[in-house]
Specification:
The protein has 345 residues and is an alpha/beta fold. Helices cover 37% and strands 16% of the residues. The strands form 2 sheets. It has a 7-stranded mixed β-sheet. Strands 1-2-5 form a 3-stranded antiparallel β-sheet. Bound molecules: iron/sulfur cluster.
């Protein structure tokens, strides 16, 4: 008989990975090599940037019963001065090679999450911008993804400077993912760099809430449940910083009981931090990619959670209608006011 799997101690594991995934002195980040990786099979286009970048297709359309996903298309169009919001936009994605969590539905294989120098390479932000410049007809969105970019938060201001040095800061839109797993942004990044994050015009940051209660969080990430609360603490700090902030949420849970209440509690919690923030969030439907598929065949509970997310999205949609006026709900996502934003000092 096997005992329960050991849960991830996020603080310890994140610290270990951070030490291996960033070289502060020479301004370098460990970037995953996609060519030859287990992720390659899921790419619609071959990896670019010598195997370290990929083109991602962002689409407004989602599945039946799920809201449209305007991220990052709508904020990018607004920043870039594009009048019409297209159905589809491409982004160039770089993935940092570390993440402290192990979400069962992650489309990035574990081998690209453990800061393995045999499957990644060190790059400065200027190197990455140089690779971007070599792409013919390059996407206007650059997405710093992971992995978990919040383990190496210096990456974003470094990229901003490199884009400014290359004269690309107005013609590109920088989009970064944040798993809300650590407070390194506030612990390790200089005030000057935080100010750059605050003032860089073509920038949006998306934070992902993993689950609608501590139990679904742990089920999704394999991390100790304390990480659930921590997500909201980090989100609160980010909102105070005054960034152009958005959110994703994943609604998979192994428990078929209490789904509606769990979703309502999540919305209460978000609104206690920032009343309108739920309108800047997009629930993400978990879909099966190749690495996920392999894991799914081994776990009935995970299959059940895919059905739970359908119940959860119905609850989320009902709550959104009940809590927000039609006028507010009709606004473009970037136009949803954040009343408590920008109280940083
Ligand atoms: S936090 Fe993101 S990158 Fe990390 S395991 Fe989960 S889905 Fe994958």
């Amino acid at each position: 008989m096997t005992g329960p799997a050991k849960l991830i101690d996020t603080e310890r594991f994140a610290a270990r990975l951070r030490a291996r995934a960033i070289d502060i002195e020479s301004g370098r980040i460990l970037i995953s090599r996609l060519t030859g990786s287990g992720q390659e099979i899921d790419l619609t286009l071959p990896a670019n940037c010598n195997g370290y970048g990929r083109v991602r297709h962002f689409r407004l359309a989602t599945a039946d019963g799920w809201p449209q996903n305007p991220l990052p298309i709508a904020p990018a169009c607004r920043a870039l001065g594009l009048a019409a919001v297209p159905e589809l936009m491409t982004a160039l994605v770089f993935q940092n090679a570390a993440c402290a969590w192990r979400c069962w539905y992650c489309f990035v294989p574990e081998e690209l999450l453990k800061a393995d120098v045999n499957r990644s390479e060190w790059f400065t932000a200027a190197d990455l911008v140089g690779l971007y410049q070599q792409i013919p007809d390059a996407p206007r969105i650059i997405d710093l993804s992971g992995g978990s970019p919040d383990l190496v938060p210096e990456w974003t201001p470094w990229m901003m400077r490199a884009l400014m040095n290359a004269g690309l800061h107005e013609t590109t839109y920088l989009w970064t993912d944040d798993n809300l797993s650590t407070t390194y942004l506030f612990d390790a990044v200089s005030r000057e760099d935080l100010n750059l994050l605050r003032s860089y015009r073509n920038y949006g940051r998306v934070c992902c809430i993993k689950g609608f209660d501590a139990s679904s969080f742990t089920f999704n990430t394999r991390a100790a449940p304390r990480g659930y609360d921590r997500q909201f603490e980090v989100l609160h700090q980010l909102l105070k910083l005054g960034l152009d902030l958005y959110g994703y949420v994943t609604l998979t849970s192994p428990n078929t009981d209490g789904v509606t209440q769990g979703v309502a509690d999540l919305l209460d919690r978000l609104q206690a931090i920032e009343p309108n923030f739920p309108l800047r969030m997009v629930p993400l439907r978990i879909q099966v990619f190749t690495p996920v598929e392999q894991r799914l065949t081994r776990d009935i509970e995970r299959e059940r959670s895919l059905a739970v997310q359908e119940e959860a999205i119905a609850a989320w949609t009902d709550e959104i209608v009940r809590r927000f006026s039609p006028e507010l709900r009709a606004r473009p996502i970037y136009d949803v006011p954040l009343d408590r934003r920008d109280t940083w000092s």
